[in-house]
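Let's study my pick:
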Amino acid sequence: MTAAGVLVALAALSAALCVVGVLVERRRFRNAVAGGTAVVLLLMALIAELPRFDVGVVDLATALVAALLGVFVLVLTGFLLVNGIVMTRREGRRPANLLSLLAGLACLAVVVLVPLTLRLENRFLTTVTYVTLLLAAYLGFLLCSLLAYAVVYRSVGFRPGVDFVVVLGSGLVRGVVPPLLASRLDRAAALWERERERGGDPMLVTSGGRGPDEPVAEAVAMADHLVARGVPSERILREDRSRTTRENLVFSLALMAERVPDPRCAVVTNDFHAFRAALTARRAGVDGQVVGSPTARYYRPSATLREFVAILAEHRALNATIGIALVVLGVVVGLDR
């Protein structure tokens, strides 16, 4: 079997693992990695077949791909920088709001570093460039895999017949439900109304404790918002102790289990947070699909990067090991040049 054939076979195996993973338990990050690996292996198989073509065709294809890649990186860099500036102006300079700006600066560093290395031919600079490119390729692979799989997860149809609709809190602004949280509550209310139209009678669960700068618990303010929207107060459970997404889910599960054995639920959060919330729900033992609500466009890139960093942190030992291995590889290759 040729090298391309082996790569195609491995790609088929990775794709099969992804499909099986989706069918068995779609709330796993390994499914995203398997799907991304299948795509990378197919691209490698395509590259392995290039020598079969005429040299002129190969050179033209290589130049075209390099040009497209360069344009993509430049556009991405500009987008992230502009979005980072908009984000800090609208949401403040908290670390979580700086991620798109920092990512843009990192892309800019790569854009400057590569041509500088080619021009100066310095061994130290070459080594730094190899290390940077390897780490960027790894992180880019994981991020693209996550983004693609998140689309797959969201595209899976919502299963009707739930016992509860859980809304995850996201913080109040001077005791008032902000637009980000209101989007979740409106989506949850729409799901609740749809279930009632289908003959069900689920309860809503508002989940969120009281922060040090909040006059009331998030769960209370969220419930008031739903009541104002027409939801009967007696159909709302208020989980007012949680501080994190995991606590949101664990404490909400306890409330639901008091009323229904082995409860099925829908969990509502913003679209950028949906997949990580699904991963957390699986680990917390919650039987439910996570549904995303719309988010302002300017807010989404930085928020998505924050979710990505959080997922990396959940697998810190594995990612640190791979990162160290890539650094060592980059140093060895760079010093050999």
Summary: The radius of gyration is 24 Å.
